[in-house]
Amino acid sequence: ITELKNYTQRLEKTVEERTKQLKDALETEKELNELKTKFLSLVSHEFKTPLTGILTSSMLLSKYTLETQQEKRDKHIETITNKVHYLNSILNDFLSVEKLETGKVTYKFTTFKLSKVVNEVIYNANMLLKEGQKINYPENIDDIILTQDEKTIELSLSNLVHNAIKYSPEKTTIQLNIHQDQTQTVFEVIDSGIGIPKKDQKNIFNRYFRAENALLSQGTGIGLNIVKTHLENLGGSIHFISQEQKGSTFTMIIPNTPNQ
Ligand code: ADP
């Protein structure tokens, strides 16, 4: 009888464990399905608007004659180019996610002057500024040297700066601060834009997540997720503080030399 009792107890425990495993698996599958649906709706939505624009412009383009309507043609060519660039950048983000997930990312460490990266980021950002927007950045950083994956640092910084521009209204200033100490370099991107609602702050680095107040601007909710993964892979980190309708400060920290 004791043996039978022990056996029944063991059996009960096993059933309990298996039920929990099954429940977890079902929940994971549900989460995966939700993520898949979110992804598909994001892709269709994000691609549809630029594609419609490209289609319209290319149809109109063929209607204007080269001799008399050059200006209109140029405008439509510019629209097409911009939208193709945008689609290309989204595709690159998707490819990065895939690479990061499958562990196919490799980093190439070189020693470089940070001013080179900052100049490149500011040059590109200047083209995206809204009416009356301005970026302040440190110009005396010639002695800041990093041994890091240059492309990844540039991608991360430009992501933060582009977000600051995108989520801030016209006539605002974005401040970029950079400090280096013995071991690490700290970048701060400060904006006085729409900010992130308190309830959304915990999800901001989740893939495809976009805060409610951000939905008026284009975006995929992928950028910060990629940046965070890259920075952590390189031994760095990313943090933010934000207040809705006041602004946000994103801080990224990166070791001056690769971690062992
Ligand atoms: P995307 O900008 O394409 O939506 P990101 O991953 O770069 O994706 O950002 C995720 C979300 O974080 C954004 O949708 C937005 O809600 C919020 N966010 C990021 N940066 C800022 C910022 N500077 N100000 C306000 N909200 C921001």
From TrEMBL:
Q: Give one GO molecular function term.
A: phosphorelay sensor kinase activity
Coiled-coil residues are 4-38
Question: Which EC number(s) are documented for this chain?
Answer: 2.7.13.3
Histidine kinase domain sequence ranges: 42-258
What are the entry keywords? Answer: ATP-binding, Coiled coil, Kinase, Nucleotide-binding, Phosphoprotein, Transferase, Two-component regulatory system
Reactions the enzyme catalyzes: ATP + protein L-histidine = ADP + protein N-phospho-L-histidine
Name of the molecule in the record: histidine kinase
